[in-house]
Amino acid sequence: MHYCYILYSKKIDRFYIGETEDFVRRYQEHLSGYFKHSFTSRTDDWELYMLIECSNRFEARKLENFLKRMKSRTFIQRLKSDPFLLDEIMQHQIRGS
Fold first, then answer.
1. Alpha helices by DSSP H, the chain
2. How far apart are CA 97 and CA 19, in angstroms?
3. Separation CA 79–CA 60 (nearest Å)
4. pTM of the shown model
5. For residue 71, what are the contacts with CB-CB under 8 A and spacing of at least 6?
6. What domains, with CATH codes, occur in the chain?
7. pLDDT in tens for each of the 97 residues of the chain?
């Protein structure tokens, strides 16, 4: 199982979108500054905003790239508040049905 996740930092008022197989491990890496020059090393207050379970790594990466291309705070907030939007994206953009 793979996950696409969205983190939020209040300090810098920014979202971060990523993909992983082991969310707990990856989240700890973000909080600890494990990757010293990464975007998430700027702050230590990352909170989980949204965790989306995907069937495999390909699907998780495709969703991650789609969300990053949207480049929209409003879209990310709408995604969380409207579960039907996520279903539509998964069905049409990610799985291609």
1. 23-32, 57-70, 73-81, 83-88
2. 22
3. 16
4. 0.92
5. none
6. 2-94 (3.40.1440)
7. 999 999 999 999 999 999 999 999 999 999 998 888 899 999 999 999 999 999 999 999 999 999 999 989 999 999 999 989 999 999 888 887 5
